[in-house]
Model the fold of this input.
Amino acid sequence: MKVLATALFLTISLFAKGQNLYIKTYGNEKNKTIIFIHGGPSGNATLFEGTTAQKLADLGFYVIAYDRRGEGRSADPDAKFTFEEAFQDLNSIYATHHLKKAIILGHSFGGLVATLYTNKYPQNVSALVLAGALFSQQETYDHILYTLKKKYSNDSEQLKKISIVENLNKNSAEYRKGCYGLAGENGFFKMPNPTAASKKLYADYEAGEFYKTNIRNKNAPLIFYQNEKQNNIDSRPFLKKIKTAGVPIYGIYGKDDGIFSSAQINSMKAITGEKHFAFLDNCSHYLFVDQQAAFLSNLKNWLK
Done:
């Protein structure tokens, strides 16, 4: 009988496709299960694993981290990168680990996957946690571009760069890439005042084994936009439906995450409710590293 599966690497075969999926588990399988869904498309779970997964397990959870099909360490040249494909992979994890219910923790784009999965399979989800998760994509793109136009109102060269992105097809991979590219160049994803703890976490990750497997499939976003019709969505109607169905929703966001407007944050808080929402100081997009202690404390208080 397997009691402890700490830092156990599993390669499983998906039933339908025979596709190998990278999965790693942390903690005691008798504890409440948390499945972490990473960002993307083109992301992976290495930063979460290299900094936070074991610490979350140490709080009394059974943590499952995995890379979606075709992304990171789950190489698959035939991956379609659709939400439905992601749902199949999640269901295979439930089956392989004999899970009836699990807590879903979605970060960034993973929050969209988590929300749409919970909407389709609410019976499988005991709680939905959205961590710096996307939910109203066009509002995010609009906010990025508006903020930058305001910042560079007297810089014709920068305004030209912004205008080129702004005039792209809003339902295209190029538009998404352009918006996030500009956001990255302008520090939207970085905490303003790195702490000693956050600096150490990032440094240890970059010096460790997980960073060596920080594999990014640059073709993933393009294929996603070719194959997935739901490519620029507002998931708030789904979240309201999920809440009505009785699945608790929690939101945790960084006050310095530059991709969300205050109106977006307020609308998310209205959905989760005051007691199910945390807004962390001196914290940007990678909040489980930027403010790890506060991140873990909130999850423990909500989920234990």
Q: What stands out?
A: The two ends are 25 Å apart (CA to CA). The chain is about 45% helix and 15% strand.
